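Handout, section 4.2: multi-component inputs.
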Amino acid sequence: MLFAYAVPRVPLRRPEIRWQVGVRAVVYDRYGPPDVLRVAEVPAPSPDANQVLVAVAATSLNLSDWECLRGTPLYARIGGLRAPARRTLGSDIAGRVEAVGSAVTRFRPGDEVYGEIQMGGFAEYAVARQSALAHKPESLTFAEASTIPQAGAIALQGTAGVGEAQRMLINGAGGGSGSFAIQLAKRAGAHVTAVDNAGKLEFMRSLGADEVIDHRSQDFTRGETYDLVLDLVAHRSVFAYRRALARGGRYRCVGGSVSALLRVVTIGAIAGRLTGRRLGLLVVKPGPSHFEPVADLCVSGDLQIHIHGTYRLDEVPRALAEVGEGRALGKVVVDIA
Ligand SMILES: NC(=O)c1ccc[n+]([C@@H]2O[C@H](COP(=O)([O-])OP(=O)(O)OC[C@H]3O[C@@H](n4cnc5c(N)ncnc54)[C@H](OP(=O)(O)O)[C@@H]3O)[C@@H](O)[C@H]2O)c1
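Output:
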């Protein structure tokens, strides 16, 4: 918590005001396993003219946090090849607006918000561009709202265009994005095959998956073919992915090893075109217009939010291991309030 004497009681309209007080945050100084993380007191972040200062109530974890902790795949080191450029991870936050910069028009102190920020979410306070935030629906808790921004945007864009009776396969479907993607694809009327480790098969069935595959015992690229493959963890060759597609089918990867992603955008694009299929990388667009539709479906009860577990700030290392080591069913949340 911010020390009482330092909390401004009026909106922070003047961005030149800089706070010099400490807040608790989870920090790291080198890439490595979860034990390189520690809770420390850091200077309170200060919003610039277009930013909002948020008292973070909950932050949800994404695989990208684990990747940036480990520094692998290599794209996780963008901005800091040898050491992390940002000391605090955590990009999906929900909380209350504490202060706003002078150019902020959409939010006021006291508003309940959620959104995807550029790291810094494993902390009591974080700053966010106003364009990254949305007003939190009243009926969602902070923990629930925090699960939606990144995973919801990936799932919505990853299932876009899938239609009635089409066959869709989702690889890595038992995690955060996958648990939304299975439900969205089922709502669109698709026949869904969900791939993940054996511990997640029942969970994926409970979300509506028609077929489930344990990736450790079965190679999904040797069997059925699909109209759409959404791959959250690409590692195989483009020829394997092409083999998994029906004629006219589409393969889109979102995450995975750098070499697999590079192969998809180079050889994959050509090999696909030559054989009447499309293989490519899905660059996910962030922001409220991409995650609010998912929140609306959660509010109406058409989508379920699955929270595997809730952890305290000092338990972030353990929470990250749950996600990174493949045990989390759905989303993991850090309750900061
Ligand atoms: N393209 C973009 O613009 C963009 C934007 C944001 C994020 N991303 C990326 O999108 C991905 C999103 O993942 P998420 O947050 O949904 O992850 P998540 O919650 O950790 O889910 C990933 C799931 O994949 C499983 N998995 C791992 N290796 C597998 C394999 N070989 N075959 C099948 N399943 C496997 C994992 O379990 P096990 O480990 O136990 O197998 C886990 O259940 C991340 O890689 C992130 O970096 C991309």
